[in-house]
Structure formats: structure tokens, C-alpha cells
Amino acid sequence: MKTILFTITLSLTSLIISAQDNSTTDDTLLEGTTITVNVPVSTDKGNVLFGLFTEENFMSATPVQGLEAEIKDGKATVTFTDVVPGTYAITLLHDLNGNKRMDYDANGMPTEMYGVSNNVMSMGPPMWSDAKFEVDGEPLTLDIRM
Fold first, then answer.
1. What's the Cα-to-Cα distance from 138 to each of 25, 69, 110, 134, rounded to whole Å?
2. C-alpha closest to that of 100 among 36, 49, 34, 135
3. Where are the domains of the chain?
4. How many Å apart are CA 137 and CA 118, to the nearest integer?
5. Measured between alpha carbons, how far is 8 from 1 in angstroms, rounded to an integer?
6. In 3-state terms, what secondary structure has residue 63?
7. Residue 54 and residue 84: Cα distance in Å, rounded?
8. Is the pLDDT assigned to residue 119 strictly greater than 90?
């Protein structure tokens, strides 16, 4: 009896494992699209930090993808790759001093320029509902202002 149960369990386990393996080796399921982001910058000093977020991690320290770009000829450009279709938002920061975080003055106002997808600038931190956009599988290019 133990041998029969063992054989059935082994067969089911093999079936489940092979089903999972087939889904992960299908290249069409692993590929995403690209999002290219262009940002005009008033000075070539520092770098621009970019974060791609979902609603679950919006405004957290850990984006889905984080990139950094040098500023050349008054512009910073990055391309997020392998972005699967869904709803996202992008935030960016002109990191003038290279400390990889936003700096604030004594009254809590940011001392470095920042931007958000959809170019919504309001008093206070950006809101997901204002910054979100859809990725449908086609390459996307966004121009974001600071």
C-alpha cells in the first residue's frame, strides 16, 4: 500500500513540476516591453535617479526597477526593460550631491528637483492616482518635467 501511495505522490509531483517548468520556459511569458523616459535638466551637475513603481510599492524605497542616468547636454534618459503589462508610475530625482536620496531644508521642503509621471506637481507628496499610467505591451516613451 505504501508503494502505491508513494508512486501516486511521485507521479503527481512530477506532473506539477513539469507544468510549472513549461510555463516558465515559454519566452513570451517572460518578455516585457520598454519604457523610455526623457527629462530636461537645467544643469549637468549630479545625476538623475528614476524609480518604476506599482501601486503596492509607490513612494517606497524599493521600486520595481531603479535606474540612474548621467546628465548630458541638459537631458537625462533611461530605458526600463522587461516591463510586463500593467499599471505603473515613475518618480525621479535630480540628485545634485550624489547621496542617492532627496534632501530637504529646515522647513521640510525638498532642496533637489523631482518629477512624477503624468507631470503632476502638487503641494505635498505625489499621489498614485495622479501619477499612474498603463503599459499594454507596446514600447512607451515618456517626457517628464521636474
1. 22, 23, 35, 10
2. 49
3. 1-30, 31-143
4. 19
5. 11
6. coil
7. 11
8. yes
Asked if 53 and 64 count as a contact pair (C-beta separation under 8 A), the reply is yes
Q: Which CATH number fits domain 31-143: 3.40.50, 3.40.630, 1.10.10, 2.60.40?
A: 2.60.40
Could you say which DSSP state residue 84 is in? P
The secondary structure of residue 57, as a DSSP letter, is G
Kindly report, residue by residue over 54-113, the tens digit of the pLDDT.
Answer: 999 998 889 999 999 999 999 999 999 999 999 999 999 999 999 999 999 999 889 999
pTM value?
Answer: 0.77
CA distance 134 to 84: 10
3-state SS class at 82? strand
